[in-house]
Specification:
By secondary structure, the chain is mainly alpha-helical. The protein has 2 domains: about 55 residues, Homeodomain-like (Arc Repressor Mutant, subunit A, Orthogonal Bundle); about 130 residues, Tetracycline Repressor, domain 2 (Orthogonal Bundle), CATH 1.10.357. The radius of gyration is 19 Å and the shape is elongated. The N and C termini lie far apart (about 45 Å).
């Protein structure tokens, strides 16, 4: 499916912002990389800030649709193996999907400049995952799979190390396979630690 000009602009803006940051990318460079003139971009976006805000809107929609959110949860796992498999699918997606990787880099760079980027970084790097797994672990408790505890605290304990390991993949992509193995080992350890006695 061919992408339209507006989508092309946002795709290239994401690529440049993820490498050079917002301040380090100018409209002239963006237009040149697209083989356009400034007036061509301004037909779609009134300013660089408008491109930035449209890009953030797109990031939110893409992340929610492809990775998940409290409103778009995966099914509650029926076993420890299902928990590990679901976790590994999510982590594999977030470390290999090019748009998600670039989004994470943009948010990391821009969270100190832009309030909206800061809010999204907090959500995508920590609070959103914790909220998702709070619901998942509450469901697993209801199924008698993991022992009764504060599901929010369990979710925090589960997602924080995984989030840190995902960021390691961004910093040292050559170690991604080893890091993925560590995530899986952690997920299995967590299950063995918190599983209900009869599970």
């Amino acid at each position: 499916m061919a992408i339209n000009t507006k989508e092309r602009i946002l795709k290239k803006a994401l690529e440049l912002f993820s490498r050079k940051g917002y301040a380090g990318t100018n409209i002239r460079e963006l237009t040149a990389s697209l083989g356009m003139v400034k007036s061509g971009i301004y037909k779609h976006f009134e300013s660089k800030e408008a491109i930035w805000n449209a890009l953030l809107d797109e990031m939110i929609a893409y992340y929610g649709a492809h990775f998940g959110s409290v409103e778009n949860l995966p099914p509650v796992p029926d076993s420890g193996e299902a928990l590990v498999a679901m976790t590994m699918r999510m982590v594999d997606y977030t470390v290999h999907d090019e748009r998600i990787v670039m989004t994470r880099k943009v948010l990391t760079l821009e969270q100190y400049r832009d309030e909206r980027a800061r809010e999204l970084a907090s959500k995508h790097f920590l609070t959103g995952l914790t909220e998702m797994f709070t619901v998942i672990f509450a469901g697993m408790m209801e199924k008698g799979l993991i022992r009764r505890d504060d599901p929010g605290m369990l979710a925090f304990a589960y997602t924080t190390p995984i989030s840190a390991l995902i960021h390691q993949c961004d910093r040292t992509p050559e170690r991604t396979q080893r890091i993925m193995e560590r995530v899986e080992a952690f997920s299995r350890h967590f299950w063995e630690t918190y599983r209900a006695e009869q599970s």
